[in-house]
Design a protein that fits this description.
The longest helix has 66 residues. Helix content is 52%, strand content 19%. Among the domains are: 94 residues, no CATH class; 89 residues, PAS domain (Beta-Lactamase), CATH 3.30.450; 153 residues, Alpha-Beta Plaits (2-Layer Sandwich).
Length: 563
Amino acid sequence: MFRKSLKVKIILPSILILSVLIVSMNVFLSVRFMPLNNALINAKLETNISGLQFYFDDRKSNTRTAAISMSFHAGAVRAIKERNTEELLRLFAAAHETYRVDYYTITDHEGIVLARTHAPDRLGDSVLNQQNVKDALGGTVSSYFEAGTVVKVSVRTGAPVYDMDGSLIGVVSAGVRFDLDGELEKLKELFNAEIAVFSGDERIATTTTQKGHSIVGVSLDPNIAEIVVINQQEHREEANIFGEKYKIYYRPLFNPQDDVFAVFFFGMPTTEVITSSDNVRRDGIIFGLVGLAISIVLIYLIMSSVSEPIIRLSNDMSNIANGNLRVDIKIDSEDEVGHLGKSLQKVANILFKLLDDINVMIAEQKKGNTDYDLQTEAFRGDYKILAESVLELGTFSMQDQLTGLPNRRSFDNRIDIEWNRAMRDKAPISILLMDIDKFKAYNDAFGHQQGDVALRTVANAIKWSLSRSTDFAARWGGEEFVILLPSTHSSGAGIVAEKIRESVENMVIPSNDERSEKTTISIGIHTLIPSKDCLICEFISAADSALYEAKITGRNRVCHHGG
């Protein structure tokens, strides 16, 4: 009986399918290419519109981060309280690049401007007409598209500023401008489109030029103004700008009162898309016919040489599928099968390296090393995503997500290692247990969100106070933190503890205690040279007893175990 080979089974159907596909494709392109052009242009426009929304959201997020961050800045709080305009300009001008915003406006508790980074000479006026400032004076952080005294169109966020006693002393308002040609030029480069901004119905900034001059001061077309400004609707149309076809999009920008106070114009050129599409259609027909003839020959030649490598490659793939990553794929041909074999070998090598790196990471974490880097830059694409996910999962399991410090599990791993090292070297080891004073009442008074800010602030004070790479700080749980100081006597531990206590006391954190203007911590210390008769749990318990003593003797103090 005649038995068809693999080559015959693949070549004949492939030739038939390829012929039908090429002929059908050319006929379809000839009949339907114009609607596809329009669909492509519309899809590109909608993609850019989505990108524009992402851009707005990103800029709004920048202003929110900038306003909130600077509202907690100790120097800024002090300068607002002292009404030191010169210091405010210096501090906030330096923060522009850090938070990617264009300007700051800083007011006192009555909404009177203390400083403007974008207009340093203008101060003393009231900006209570700006909703973000008004909300901030009411204790709420809010973000809006708004027109201001100096800036006509921008997105801005206002954040309240509190003194150490919790009293409102001013507002920090951060903004990104859309009324300057420079900002629009960035958008033009990003979206390959012409951009313009209208304040009301007057164009105040644009990337479109005529004879080298920016076209501003022109009014919006009355028909479009009725749709976008009066009826508050988006608008799309096709238009001719200086002899070139554009797909146009108008977007209304709403102020806090839900009125359209500005219009964003987006013009995407379509000539390039249409020309490229026509060229693709023409080239597709030519190359399709030529490719059909060449493909028939190539398929026969290729299939004549790939049968044996395919079998070997199939066996290697079965090994990988069954969990054996230590494969050596020996296919040296430079055809598709050869490239497939090399790619499969790369996959096996990548997975093996990832598995090896994960094992190393787990071993390091068991040693208490939470800073181990999985070297995700060695991977690409989805493998990099997988490596980053594994690293994030490993970090999540060993790190406190609120404060960024190692967590209790990481501490347990580390203390076993340091305890055994100290026992071997007959070296002292100290432990500091610390607790934020009256933290439950603090949460009740200021809310859990501000409580989280206090926890992060205290964690930062702890990080900044440790100078040795061997010192290890972790979040013990709730409002408690722990520090392990290898090779450290009681006196050295006391110095570190006092440094941390003073650092927290001097930070700008509102306090819930009517007798104190500051939030404080209490610290318990225990130091010993481990021996076989000592237990880690007793070591920690002694520090906890010292912490309890610090609490009952007045808080905001450092106590050593046994006096």
